[in-house]
Write a structure and sequence with these properties.
189 residues; three-stranded parallel sheet; globular
């Protein structure tokens, strides 16, 4: 989840992740139309497939789904598969899409099998949802103050105790990859 300064942070992170990463969902506070072109640009420079999410998209390895502007994105589960749910609804923290809406759904349906990352931005969107994820056993990363364009969202998450590891931007891809490797070597029983 990210806002002000998040487009560059997401580019830095996603271009360093391998093509076989677990299915990834992203809320970047951005107006309609821009999310599609942002996803297309990322898709042209990343090893993973990046696209603007549509309702019912299967969340699968090697794919990053960006929430469309002016719509909330949730993760839902059907059997053993995870899908996106794209919907309207009132803004949360003055935002649609909202990071809290996404993180709350991930906490509910994915829990210990998820990882949450909160990057840069004003306000508190994502802090409470990230805490719910952590309480359900998710590993969580918050971007540190020194490398944040705006340290609002990660600061609020840190203050709530929602962050497992606080990392500078250049170490977040490594943190994600190391946690993925650990989950493969030591799966939760």
């Amino acid at each position: 989840g990210s806002s002000t300064g998040g487009t560059r942070a997401l580019e830095t992170i996603l271009t360093q992740l391998p093509a076989n990463i677990p299915g990834t969902v992203v809320v970047q506070h951005m107006p309609p139309v821009f999310t599609k072109s942002f996803a297309e640009r990322l898709n042209s420079i990343c090893q993973v497939n990046v696209k603007e999410a549509e309702d019912g998209d299967h969340i699968q390895p090697g794919t990053v789904l960006i929430a469309p502007g002016n719509y909330h994105m949730l993760v839902v589960k059907n059997g053993a598969r995870y899908y996106t749910k794209i919907k309207q609804g009132p803004p949360v923290h003055h935002q649609r899409p909202s990071v809290d809406v996404l993180f709350n759904s991930v906490a509910q349906y994915v829990g210990i099998n998820a990882m949450g990352v909160i990057l840069t931005g004003m306000g508190a969107d994502g802090a409470k949802g990230l805490l719910k994820m952590k309480e359900q056993g998710s590993y969580t990363i918050g971007k540190d103050e020194a490398t944040s364009v705006v340290y609002g969202m990660p600061r609020e998450a840190f203050k709530l105790g929602a962050i497992t590891d606080q990392l500078p931007l250049n170490r977040i891809p490594e943190g994600i990859i190391n946690h993925m490797k650990q989950k493969v070597l030591e799966p939760h029983l």
